[in-house]
Structure formats: C-alpha cells, structure tokens
Amino acid sequence: MKPINVGLLGIGTVGSGTFRVLQRNSEEISRRAGCAIRITMVADKDVARAKAIVGDTAQVTADALDVINNPQIDIVVELIGGYTIARELILKAIASGKHVVTANKALLALHGNEIFSAARARGVTVTFEAAVGGGIPIIKSLREGLTANRIEWIAGIINGTSNFILSEMRAKGAAFADVLQEAQRMGYAEADPTFDIEGVDAAHKLAIMAAIGFGIPVQFSKVHVEGIAKLAQEDIRYAEELGYRIKLLGIAKRKPGGFELRVHPTLIPARQLIANVEGVMNAILVKGDAVGQTMYYGAGAGAEPTASAVVADLVDVARMLTADPEHRVPHLAFQPDRLSDVPILPMGEVETSYYLRLRVADKAGVLADITRILADQGISIEALMQKEPHAGEEHVDIILLTHLTQEKKIDIAIQRIEALPVVSGNITRIRMESLQ
Questions:
Q1: CATH of the domain at 237
Q2: Which one, of 61, 152, 92, 135, lies nearest residue 303 by Cα?
Q3: 36, 325 in Cβ contact below 8 A?
Q4: Which of 111, 172, 353, 432 is the most exposed place for a label (fewest CB within 10 A)?
Q5: Nearest to 210, CA basis, from 242, 254, 243
Q6: Long-range CB contacts for residues 414-419, cutoff 8 Å, separation at least 24
Q7: 118/260 same-domain check
Q8: 391 and 258, same structural domain?
C-alpha cells in the first residue's frame, strides 16, 4: 500500500508533538497501519519556526489552502483550534475529498453535526479522538469497544486545569484565586482561563461523548454549565470532613424522560477511585448495561499524550481508506439516520442529592424552620453537621446533605430558606453523585 501523505494545519504544541511521535515511532506505526504515514506538508503562520521543527522532511507554507488544495495530500490534520477559520478549512478539506483528523472539541461541540453531515455526503471521514481526554482513548471506547452496551451514564473529570486547582485547594488549604495564579504560572491555565474554570471546556467534551454514548446529535447548547470559581475553601474542607471530595464533573445520564447533560462541581464519596484523581489528570467513568462500570484514566492534555490520539486517528483512517464509506464506523457510533430525538431534560427535572451550606443565627428553633421548609418540598435529610461559632460570632455554619430530589424542588426550598430572617447571605448548593 502506498504511503499516506498527511497535511498538518498548525504545528504548535500538539502539532509538533504529532510530528515527533510519527518520526520516532514510524516503523511501529507503519506495521500497525499497513503503510507508511508521513507528514509531507505543514501550514503555519510562523514559517521559520515550522521549518526548524520539520527540517527537510516536509514542505512548509503560510497558507493552509495550499495544503487543502494539494492533490497529493490524503489526510488533513487540523490543529489550529477555534470556531471560525478551523471550521472553514475543515469544510473545504472535506469538499476536496480529503479525510480530516482534528483535536478541536470546541468546533465539534458547536458545529459537529454540520461537519459530520458534510463528510458523509462527500464519502470521507472525520476522526477526533484527541478532542476529548487528550491521550485517553475514550472516543474509540464509546464508539467501538462498548458498542454492545446500552450506555446508562458517563461521568468524568475532563478538564485538567480545574482538577489541578481543586486538588491544590484541598491539599494546601489555599484560596481559589491563589491556586489559579499558581496554575497560570505553571502553564496549566491560560492567561484567560474562562473556558477551563467556568466549565465550558468540559461541556464541549461532554456534548461530544454524550452524542456518541447515547446516539443523539451533538447538543452543546443544552448542557447545563457551572464552573468552580465560586467554590469556597470551607466547602472543600467540610466535604472532606463528611467523607467526600469536590470535583468538576461532566455528567450525562439516560433517564426515562430524556437525557441529563450537566457540568458542575460535584461531591463524590472519597472512597471512589475517581475522587482520588489529582492534579491535571483526567478520568472518565462509563456505565454500560452489559459491561458494568468502566474507568479510563490518563493525561488529558500535553503535546505527546494528545499526539498519541492524533496518530491513532491517522492509523484508523489509513486502515479504512479502501473501505466502502457505507461500512465505516459512523462518526457518532450510530447510523446517521438512526440518531435519537429523545430530548435533553431541563435542569429543573434533574434528580440528584445536594450539599447545602447555610450561615444561620445561633439560636433555638432555626433547624426546625429549615427542616420544615425542606419537608414541604418532600426533601429528606441524609446528614447534618453544625459547626461551633467562633468567639464573639452570632452565626454558625450548618451543612446539610439531602437524599435524592429534583432540582426544581431544591430551588424552591433554597429560595424560602434564604428568606428566613435567621439566615445570613446566600446558601451554597453543590450537587452530589454516588456514581454507583
């Protein structure tokens, strides 16, 4: 089989990692793919830097269209990122009959349905293992390895920056703002960390995984998203005292009335393996009806971990180049005409347990008022902890853990409890998951 010629759009951190891995493991990769896979053309605005990386092994250009329009290029690897230029280039590559490999989760979360439709119409494929979980092969596992299963739920730590911040807050007792600065200094967080700390990056990845796991279109706009910026150190400490850890989780669940898609800080029992995933590492749990619970753990970012996934996609494409397009693995695992139109549930219909922290006056009858309001909404208490007041203080912290209830019921209860004259400020609410 003739060598596969790859055109690389962008040779930054992941692009240079992809080039190195292909060069270093070229013999092993060709043995797996059945042919040589080589980067023969690179497009990058910094031509001098690109030439310094690839040397004489590939042609370098500043114009990405040179790569797309080159008839010798079989596969285009898009590692530019962003929503606009990357989308235009991928659609042009598809229109020119080229297969595409991308690590662009934001683009797929917003425009994946359009891109996959265009690829099917043209008879090419788009692969995106590196878009979720860095080097963790979660896309292939959901799309192929677990294909016998009805996926019941997916829950994962899928943003390394936020996990690093929460790990450091717990380990060092530091405030969020201080740990964020440390993450930026170490290169784990961007200068503008909004997508990471506000949960947007995790929501991009969750929308993609849910589509593959449940056989639904990619629906990023319907993911409920909350970040970690408002988490207080005392909540991490109180959670620990109660036997829990707080993690930013992406959660997708199959329910009788539809699917839950949500990203938010979550209390997890400390005994769970995923609760002990620290630093910038990622971990994803998938529950299938046949296989039970499976866990996928590894580096969620970085040059060569992500390059590992990019190269795996290149090998997959090389293997199926001669396959009839009708017999390739579908982009979203399910046949395109068999995607489900089951709705995404509004957040008010989500059912889970809750951690509530209240600042209340240290006087008799307060707990009775609070528990009565909860009982009116059918909310029962699993555990309660009242902290001793500090010297001279007239208010104390009360922490409540509830049993399962609907979000709309807890919303009403919180509103009514906050209206009590004995309650100071707003109630902190963090959702809980047992992941059983």
A1: 3.30.360.10
A2: 135
A3: no
A4: 172
A5: 254
A6: 414/356, 416/373, 417/358, 417/370, 417/373, 417/374
A7: no
A8: no
Query: Does one domain contain both 282 and 352?
Result: no
Domain count, the chain: 3
What phi, psi does 254 have (nearest 5°)? -90, 125
Are 206 and 293 in a shared domain?
yes
| Residue 60 sits in the same domain as residue 80 | yes
- Helix H or strand E segment including 24: helix 13-24
Looking at the structure, tell me whether residues 129 and 143 fall in a common domain. Answer: no
**CA-to-CA distance for 310 and 99, rounded, in angstroms?**
13
Contacts of 376 (CB under 8 A, 6+ apart): 413
Q: Which residue among 205, 253, 287, 409 is the active-site one?
A: 205
CATH code for the domain of 390 = 3.30.70.260
Same domain, 173 and 241: yes
CA 23/CA 4 separation, integer angstroms: 14
Give the burial class of 85: count Cβ atoms within 10 A of its Cβ; 0-12 exposed, 13-18 middle, 19 or more buried. Answer: middle
pLDDT digits (tens, 9 = 90+) for 34-90: 999 999 999 999 999 999 999 999 999 999 999 999 999 999 999 999 989 999 999
Strand partners, 39: 6
Residues 283 and 158 in one domain: yes
Print the domain residue range for 400: 347-432
> pLDDT per residue over 180-232, tens digit each?
999 999 989 999 999 999 999 999 999 999 999 999 999 999 999 999 999 99
In this structure, what DSSP letter does residue 96 have? T
Would you call 92 a catalytic residue per the annotation?
Answer: no
